[in-house]
Amino acid sequence: MRYFTLLLITYLFVGCSTQQTVVAQDSNTLKNITLEDIWQDGTFRTERMNALNSMKGDFYTLLDFNRETRSTAVVKYSYQTLEKVSTIVDSKNLADLAYFESYAFNADETKLLLSAESEPIYRHSENALFYVYDLKTKKLQKVADEKIQQVTFSPDSNKIAYVFKNNIYIFNLKENRLDQITFDGKINHIINGITDWVYEEEFGFVRAFQWNADGTSLAFLRFDESEVPEFTMMRYGDDLYPYPHTFKYPKAGEKNSDVSLYLYPMGAKSATKIELGDYEYIPRLKWTKDANLLAVQTTNRRQNSLKLHLVDNRTQRAKLVFDEKSDTYVNVRDVLTFLDDNSFIWSSERDGFDHLYHYQVDGKLINQITKGNWDVIKFYGADEKNKQLFYQSVEDGSINKTVYSISFNGKNKKRLSPDHGMNRASFSKNRKYFINNFSDVSTPSIYTLHTSDGKLLKKVKDNKDVQQKLAAYKVSQKEFSTITTKDGTFNMWMIKPLDFDQNIKYPVLMYQYSGPGVQTVQNSWNGYDDYWYYMLAAKGYIVVSVDGRGTGGKGAAFTKVTYKELGKYETIDQIEAAIELGNRAYIDADRIGIWGWSYGGFTSSNALLKGGDVFKMAIAVAPVTNWRLYDTVYTERYMQTPQENPKGYDQNSPLFFADQLKGKYLLVHGSGDDNVHVQNSMQMINALITADVPFDSELYPDRTHGIYRGKNTRLHLYKKMTDFILKNL
Question: Residue 6 belongs to what H/E stretch?
Fold first, then answer.
């Protein structure tokens, strides 16, 4: 259920969103935001920096899309001047490739991998055609005639590894020779070098092979999913007969893939399986700076023991470095970064908050680098010459994210991004510069260039035109505050009608996600949904979001309180927040509704069923209705297995409380949802029918979890939800 972006290149992502300070003027002269503005015309779309990739020296590249010529180019810029240096490649000049979608450099930046005609498989995976472009000769070489996956240069730039039909291949560029490394790959049985569905979704990576530092060895994972239960969805399309789509999906308590680690030295007859002791998952593998040392993370099925191993490439033996344990669960460590001496940076919640630690290669702790009652959110890397680390944290307040530098010894901490709000950095390879992407509740994304000590050099790009455009519409100010219930104080934002009158009682729509570690209350220029909230506010509604217990930004104890009882405290906090809101003079306590998507749909369903005297209506889009129906990795991390914790599963499942429905309920799902299966909604519908209670539902054929593919899909969905709110709230 977690969402990651894993690409061959570094993306600087900017949400296309809303909220800004409106120039005071008569609201009668302002235009109304329409759903067509949001979902059809892209009226408020912000500009972003596409596929920013830092190069050696003081340069970076961007992917340039030319809508008129329908071509793409990789353009090189200078960090010092921000001026264009050159166009590295333009598809207009390529005879066999009119358009490409992504690019990646080799290690010495003499070649590019270009992808085209991609076809999505699941949320992060895809097949595509790949080409090698030589910057010196200007020649284009097709890697394979077929669409392939996860094409990756070796560090010596002489070879390319990729996966085709679940087997690994290595293409030798110098010798123009293709070698097949594995031979047992078979759909829905054996996967080599690519993760299975649940790893892709919950551990957030697709490429399960890694080159060592000198390109002489390849480490990869092999998934035996033969015994994993299959899930089948019908595809309807436009054909005369629908057809089944069957894939392996391990639901909570069921059999996972048997995953094993292999090492393949170049030129060997076969790969060697590496023994790692007892484990259930191998969620990360990464070569150290030493070409003979591979770092591997393993975890048990309950995910409360995360082990770090070092595998010697010469002896092919694994050594346990340390085992991090928890009474609840340990999140997989993405921070793991090896320095030139093979000491490494690691993150841990051992003191109650997520912080950075420095270890020797043998696992001996050197020191804890960051400290405080706040979490490190992202690690940007190290400047070893100056003994500095760069990171993003919430120490500026849990609704803000700020960029900092700090010395290896934990001293000389410096704030690098000056403004309060959402700050995301993209550092140059030499760590001399970074481009900061800043937004807050009243400012759409601004890109600025800084030196590594935070000095502002130049503005790169802003979105003032969006602010100017919005000034002509009825857009209120999003207000941040906290709300206190009997169980605690929680972050909240509220959007009131532009002509708000405290003597009038307004209906309220509450929005939440509520899932572990996820925040919806953040000081940023948010997503498309905000335009919808401003549209609703213009129609006389107050829209509110509350981050209750279990959400992120406030340390491990706040997030992990929901362990073994997903849905219990999240539902209580939404109900209690609604009660507190209803006590305010300007809110109509009899007209409070709630909605959410995915985990948020799970919570909104529970809130309506268990808080029927509080909520008048609820909308649940693609909801989990019983955690027994969701996957092993995510569900068991927070709930253990259904066999171990049956009450935790059943006491918080809306399926078992359908007969308590009092308010109006809209249930929405896509039939092609490979993540939260439509089975969840079908079982919920059956429970409601059995209870003989009225409800509304909408099914979107073949749409996945995001319900967006196909002309007018999102427009239709939001019209449906808007009409439901106007009618029932």
Answer: none
Using the predicted structure, report yes or no on whether residue 14 has a pLDDT greater than 70. no
CB-side exposure of 621: number of CA atoms within 13 Å? 19
Report how far residue 116's alpha carbon sits from residue 245's, in angstroms, rounded to the nearest whole number. Answer: 25
**CA-only gyration radius of the chain, Å:** 26
**Residues 269-302 pLDDT 10s:** 999 999 999 999 999 999 999 999 999 999 999 9
Q: How far is CA 469 from the centre of its chain?
A: 29
Mean pLDDT of 200-210: 97
Beta strands in 548-676 (DSSP E): 587-597, 617-621, 664-670
> Tens digit of pLDDT for each residue in 217-246?
999 999 999 999 999 999 999 999 999 999
Q: Are strands 617-621 and 587-597 parallel, antiparallel or unpaired?
A: parallel
Domains in the chain with CATH codes: 334-462 (2.120.10.30), 466-728 (3.40.50.1820)
Alpha-carbon span 551 to 589, nearest angstrom: 25
d(CA 166, CA 207): 11
Those residues with Cβ within 8 angstroms of residue 64's Cβ, 6 or more apart along the chain or in another chain: 50, 72, 73, 74, 75
Spatial distance between the Cα atoms of 686 and 679, rounded to a whole number of angstroms: 10
Enter the DSSP assignment of 660: G
DSSP 279-296: -SEEEEEEE-SSTTEEEE
Average pLDDT along the chain: 94
